[in-house]
User: Fold Bifunctional protein FolD from Richelia sinica FACHB-800.
Amino acid sequence: METHTAKILDGKALAQKIQTELAATITESQPKIGRVPGLAVLMVGDNPASAAYVKNKEKACAKVGIASFGKHFPTQTSQTELEAVIAQLNEDERVDGILVQLPLPNHLDAVGLLHTIAPDKDADGLHPVNLGRLVRGETGLRSCTPAGVMRLLQEYKISLAGKQAVVLGRSILVGKPMALMLLEADATVTIAHSRSQDLKTITQNADILIAAVGIPGLITADMVKPGAVVVDVGINRVTDSSGKNSLVGDVQFAATADVAEYITPVPGGIGPMTVAMLLQNTVSSYLQVHNL
Ligand SMILES: Nc1nc(=O)c2c([nH]1)NC[C@@H]1CN(c3ccc(C(=O)N[C@@H](CCC(=O)O)C(=O)O)cc3)C=[N+]21
Assistant:
């Protein structure tokens, strides 16, 4: 019997290719600009997952030739202290990108801090000015995860114009900007979320299905239209019955791969693309400053 298996959208490979290209761009621009690009990552507290992400980002920076100005603050650091640090980084000519690693400890106002980042150094693309630019279809720094999804779809020449795209999740970090980017690419966009009724009917209509909810295995094969493109943004750390830790997405990968045409793996899908887009945003701010 013939069995169908989806093609893999290989985010890890594309992220590596993008990083190689960014390294070449930096090598070429550095003599003209007189310095390398710089990214400041602010981390508060000692969430182990955040620490691991921050370390990954710093490693990626080193690989492409971006200087990282990592700053680690104790849990009890105040809002005022952090605002002062950001104000300083906004003025620092060696710094092209600033990122506040989320989540922050509860006593801090993450949105308030975000507002203090200079929009043109907002490597995460989450400042209201950059979100507003996205709404208006203007150029600006784009949120890294949805930008990574768009770049991956583009790499595999997946056409979006006129297609039914369904985004599961409505966060500021992923769902909302994702929907806007798909709309910009002329898809017919539906946003579904935790209050949506009859999710299965909605997802079964999707030519392009983007899962960004953070619920391991929420999307089962029967929810997916045969031939659909399935993008799994979920990164969930789970422990199985034998006590082993693993990373899984929002999509039941193996069964869904039997019905979809394309699917992203977890790990190795959108995670690495997110990091690649963060570096790309930093480099684009770096070039912008010098009109290159
Ligand atoms: N201000 C801010 N911006 C962020 O972009 C941000 C954040 N805060 N806080 C946490 C989340 C999470 N996140 C990930 C990025 C890459 C991988 C990644 O590369 N994952 C690998 C696996 C890594 C592993 O094995 O642990 C993969 O999917 O293949 C995962 C998660 C960015 N985040």
Notes: The longest helix spans residues 11-33. Residues 214 and 234 are 5 Å apart (CA to CA). The chain has two domains: 34-120, 143-271.
